[in-house]
Every structure is written in C-alpha cells, then in structure tokens.
Prior knowledge:
Blueprint: H1 3-26, H2 31-50, H3 56-63, H4 68-81, H5 86-93, H6 96-108, H7 115-123, H8 129-137, H9 145-157, H10 162-169, H11 173-178, H12 180-189, H13 194-201, H14 206-216, H15 223-234, H16 236-248, H17 269-277, H18 285-294, H19 300-306, H20 312-326, H21 332-339, H22 345-352, H23 361-374, H24 382-392, H25 395-405, H26 412-421, H27 426-437, H28 445-461, H29 467-473, H30 480-487, H31 495-505, E1 510-513, E2 518-521, H32 532-542, H33 549-560, H34 566-569, H35 576-581, H36 585-598, H37 603-615, H38 622-638, H39 640-649, H40 658-667, H41 672-688, H42 697-706, H43 711-728, H44 735-750, H45 754-765, H46 775-782, H47 793-798, H48 800-811, H49 815-828, H50 833-837
Antiparallel strand pairs: 1-2
Helix pairs in contact: 1-2, 2-4, 3-4, 3-6, 4-6, 6-8, 7-8, 8-9, 8-10, 15-16, 20-22, 23-24, 23-25, 24-26, 26-28, 27-28, 28-29, 30-32, 31-32, 36-37, 36-38, 37-40, 38-39, 38-40, 38-41, 40-42, 41-43, 43-44, 44-45, 45-48, 48-49
Amino acid sequence: MTLALRAGALAALFAAGVAAQDVLSGNRGTARDADAAADDRIGALHLLVMAGGLDPATGVAALAAADERVALAAAALVRHRVALDDAWFSALDANAPAARRLLDELAIAPRPSADAWLARWAARPERSPDDRCRALAGRSGDWSAADRDTFLAALLADPAGDGVAAARRVLPARLADGLVGRLHQELVAGRLPLDEALRVFDRLSPQGVRALLGLALQLPEPACATLLRHVHDQRPELVVERVATAVDDAANPVDVRWLRYAAPLLATPARIGRVVALLGDAAARDEAFAALLAARVVAPAVLAFAAPADDAEAARVRIARLLDRAIDAVPAATLRDWLARGDGVGETVALFLPRRRVLDPELARDLFVRLQQAGTVDGRFCRPAALAVVGGGDEGVVRALWPLVRTTAEDAPFVEALVGRRPAAPFARLLLRSDAEQAVVGLTPAERDERRWRALHGAAALGDVAAVPQLVAVARSLPADIVRRCAALPGPLPAGQAHALLDAVGVPRYAPAGDEGVWGTVGAPEAPAADLGSALELLAWAARGGDDATVAARLLAFWRDPSPTEALRDLQPEVAPAVLRGPFGAPLRDELRARLAAGPLDAAAEALAFAVVESLAEPLDAAALALCAEIVFAMPRADRAGEAARAARWPDGRGGFALVGAVAQRLRGAAPDAVAAAFGAAVQAACADPAGAAATAARARALLVATGRAPAVRAALLPAIAPWLRTIAVDQGVWPLLVAAWARTTAALDRGDPGGARFDLGLALRLLHEPIGDPDLRRDLLGERDPGADVDPHAALACLPHRVAYMDARAADDAAAMALARASWREFAGRDAATIAALPDPIPETRR
C-alpha cells in the first residue's frame, strides 16, 4: 500500500471513529463504549501522524472534538509531531474551538513556525481579549509594547481568564516592569482584584519590585499590608533594602508600615535609636515596639515603654511580649522591680522566669523569700517562681527550697527542671536520691511509689548508676511514661538488666535445641505485662542491651518463635530493629531474603523488612542497594495473589506499596550509578524468573513516583528497570512499555548511540498522547510542565527524533541535514531550558 493510500485508509478509520462517537453520544452509550471509541480515534490519529498523512482538515476536526481526551491527544500530536504551515493556520482560523485547543498547548510549549500566525491572531480586535492572550502566551519570541497593552486590556476585562493566566505565566519581566504604574492605578481605583495583580507582580525583575515598593505605601489598607507581605515572602532581600533606605533617612519620618520588616536591620546604634524614638509616637509606637522585640533589643527606653506605671493592663501585655522574646536580656534589677508591682504584673513576670537560663543570685533570693513567706510552691505565682529557682538558682537556694518542694503533690515539673538544667550538678543527684528514700506524708501508696520512681529516674539521668537497677527491679510497675524516659537514659544497658526487663515483658528464655538452630523455651516466663503500651516501652528499654550477644540471641529467638502467646504476638515485630543493631544483624537480613523468596510476608516479616530498610547505613553500599532492589522485585514473585490484590485496590500506586516507598526514600541519597547497577542486576533476575511478570504496573508507578524527588537517581533507575517494565507491559497495559522505550531511548542518546535511540523512539513518543488511563499518570511519568520556570519534559521528549536526526547527520558529515535537524530541534524544544541549552552550535554558512 502506498503512503497516500495508507494515509487515506487511516483518515477513513478516524472518520469512522468520529461517526461511532457521535452515535454513542446520541444514544447515550455506556462510558466503556465511549472510551473505546475515543481510543480508536486517538489510535487512528497516531497512525496518521506516523504515516505523515494528518491533513489540516482531519487534525482540526480532532482538535474540535467534543471528547476532551481526543481533543487533548490531538493538541499534543499536532504540537509535538506535525509540521505547521499556512494550510494548517487557515484551517485553524476557520474553527475557533480547534484553534483555542491548540493555543492552550502552544501557551505551554511554543512553536517558532507558528509565531506569525499567533501575532495575527493576537492583533485581531474581533477576537476575545482572553483568546488574544492565549496567542501571546504561545509565541516563542519577545513581546512588543503592543502585546503588553493587549495583555493589560485582557487582564482588566477578565482577570481570571484562562488565556490571561497562560500569558501571565510567561510575561517577560521587562514588560511586567512596565505595567507597575498602571496596575498600581487600577488597584487604587479598585478596578483590579489584588490577588490578580500579585500574580503579575510575581513576574517582576528586581528593578520592577523596587518600583512597586516605591508605590506600595500609596495603597489603602489592608491592600498595602497584603502587598508588602506578599513581596516580602517572595523577595525578602528587596523589601529589607527598601526598609533600610527608610530607616536611614534621618530627614524624613519612617512610615510605620516599613517597621514590620525592620527587625533584621536593627544592628547599629543609629538604626536602633531611630526606631526607639518612635516609641513616643502614638501612631507608630506599637509597630516600633514589635520591631524592637523581634530584634531582641532591650534598651532602657524599651523597658520603660513596656511597663507604664499608670496602665496595668498595657504593662501586663507588653511585658509578656517582651519576656517571651528576650527574657534573658532583661536586667535582673528590672525583673525584681516588676515582680514587686501589685497590679498583676508580678504574676505575669513570674510565668516567664522558668525560661531564664541563669537566675541571678539576688533575684533567686528574692523569690525564695517570697516562697518561704507563702509556705507553698503551688499557685499562679509560686509555682513558676519555684520552678525558676530550681532550674536557675545556685546550690544553696535550691537546697533551701527543696523541703518546700517535697510538700507538693505535683513534683514532676520540679524534677524535670532539676534534671534538665543541671546535668553536671552532684547536689541535684543527691537531692533526688534523698527523695527516693524518704516517704512523703499525705500521699497515697500509689502516689508515693510514682514519686519515688520519678526521683530514681531523675537521679539515673544525672549519672546515679545505682538508681538503674532499682528501676529495673520494679519495671513491671512503672508507668509507661517513666519507662519511656528510662529507655532514653544515656549509656549501654548491662546484659543482666536487659534480661530482667525481658523477663518483665514476658519474653521466654530460650536455649538451642539440636543442631539446626531451633530454639526452645527454658522454664516458665513471667506473665507478660498486661498493658501493650507498657510492654512496648519495656521492650524498647531492654533492646538497649542488644549489643550483648546473649541479649541479642534472646531477642532473635523471640522474633523467630513460631508460637508466642497471644499477649506477646503483637510484640514480635518490634524486636527486629534491636536485633538488626546487634551482632545478629547480618543473619537477620539473610533471613529476610529467605522470607521474601518463600511467600507472602506475615506481620513480623513485613516489620522486619521496614526495619532492615531503615537500618541501612548511609551512604548505601552495593550490598545495601542490592537488598533494596531485592525487596522491590522479590515480593511480588512470591506473593502473586497479594500483589494483584494491592494493584486492584491501589492502581495508581499511591497506597498499598509502603515498602516500595520506604526503599525509594533511602535511594534518594544514593549514588545514581550504584542504584542503576543494583537494580539492573535485580531486574535481570526478575525477568529470567517465569514469575517475574507478577510485579504490577502499580508497583512500577509507586517506585517512579517515589523516586521523582531525586531526578538524578530516577534518571539512572529508568534504563535499569526498562526490561522489567517491558515484561509487565505484556499483561498490564501499554504505559510501562512506553516508559521503557523512553528510558532506553534517552539512555542511548546519552551514550551517543543514535541507532539504539531510534529502535524505541516511536514507542517513546506515544507517551505524549497515548490514552493511558488517568490524567495524573502522564505527569507522574514525565514530570511537571512549568512554562514559567522553563521546564517542559513533554517538549524535551518531542525533540528526541530531531536529536537522533542530528546525530545521524553529524555521523554522515552532512552539514545541510545537520542544520535542518538543528532547526527542528529548536522548533520543538518549546521553553524547556535544558533542551535548548543542549542545542549544538549553528553550522557555519561556509559548511552548508
């Protein structure tokens, strides 16, 4: 069949698809029938393009299709694969919906050959302002002043229009700068929503931002505040630059609105003095005070402003704000004066005193005298005052106060203050040891026990080694929060104490039975802890002794125990991290490999897999990467039913594949070449296994999405897993095959092999328009398109055939063909900066 006849047959097939779609729409056919008809039309379009027979009439009809999938595929095909000429432009001019669909695509990825047509479209006054903006956005060249006026008119007429949004994303900074004055006028007049103006201002150059800041103060509130905050969030250095000018201008008053951003500048006496002077200005004093607090400036004038003698309410509020920001900078004498006030200020000051790192001796003594007079450490004033003394006072005043602390039923905050603030103070340890040995009158037995345990833990945290065995002895009775703190105590846990804790949990003592490594219990273990939360905390505490071989062996035997009691079954998975850290880490990783190959993972084995992934040391070496790859590829081969069920429930891979996500998380920091080598070897093994196709497309998508945040790793990973993708594509749809083709093509180009790139090129290009299911999939596979940031993976993919053609021409030393391929490369590159940067230098005229 000749090319012309083939193209005619394909056009007829496409027309039949149109008719079928119309019939289905008219008869309200099922969604499945409609999708099938759309797939037929898209397939026919693709074949027409491949045969070079997509004529303007057929293409425009597809662009104007009512089915959005067909129209979007047609727009991608025309933009990425078709040479545009006057016949196309004439047909588009006659069909506004079709033209609008292509304009939306060109707005993301322009084609230089369409620039003249787009200029004509944008210049026609009969077109809607929004459509004219679409045309502006699709041009590859620079904008003119007339283009700027067109955009401004559209912005004012329909600021939320799609065309306006497309043009705004690519508005040149030079022209955005020229709009500052006019947009400012529109904002002042209330004719333009502020949020729409802010989106335009995001395109400004630094010079434009400076001009905008010069006009910002003329806007009414709250528009001015919103604008300044927005600009500060985007370009803080430019706002600070403008604020510096205002603060340093001694000839003119500082506008109060600049003070909100002045804190970073208050580092010189002159600037501090200018802002401090504003505390006397009723209109500016609140903002000046806030700026000084943000800069932690505690000058005498600031202290005086914070505590007006004639306004107790203002004093309480200001002092609280001051102490919250700079409690350590306030002089002790000032704090003592404020504490002496009788209008509630003293109570406010006391609330912040526990946060002061060092309590001056005179201030500590004043507080101690007040507490002695009150006879209690409880109450709104006394409790924070006592906490301040315990945490920051010297040894003498703390010892003097401690008998009073013993009278409170709620001693936990005082123990925490003593432990947290005095890690190297021997007297603190002695006080807590004394507390543990003395019974407090008036408490119930349970309250006395808890107080004793808390004191023992505090003493242990301060280095009292004798306190730890006492805590271990009563471990089963300790509350979970105290056990949790015990598990965080520094230093290793002796083996005997670790075994005692395992006894408290109820973990059996095991001994080898026979020569096959089977473990049996020795004696009857204690009854397990009744509360699962407490048992987990006890287990975490015991695991700190896992460096000892006997403790590690017991933990390992418990993890392997096939028939633990019901109360202990939930604890088994929690043992894996501790064993992995000990001497049996390597055997346990080998055991994971065996379980991966044996069949579905139970809860313990799955927990082990997560623990293994988490325990791998950075940077991941070859063995660790091989294990990661094995986890990804071995699971589905041994659990085909489970893999199928997960894929059916989570076809997009965003759930159900948490272990794949955990592996991908660890891969992000690995060397890309090492990742490719490890996964390439695992893929070979998977493809050689008859069960290798059990892995699903959902698993592949989960891996690709999870590694998307590390572009270099993902780029290295794609060619390595391409054979696997081709294998699973046999039964699970076309997109894995297309991704594999894309990966192989780009890898061939990277190694300078145009023949290898050409082999899969046709399949790779189908990623741009193939009906591959859900709208998020193409983005997950190729990446986000961001024309404003000059990133467009779709345009980069569309350039692949022209890059191959350039390499072929260079190999043949054909200057004319090289120039043509280079021109096509630039024609289809859109705005993708990386693709444009890779363009070879133009061929000199003398070689053509």
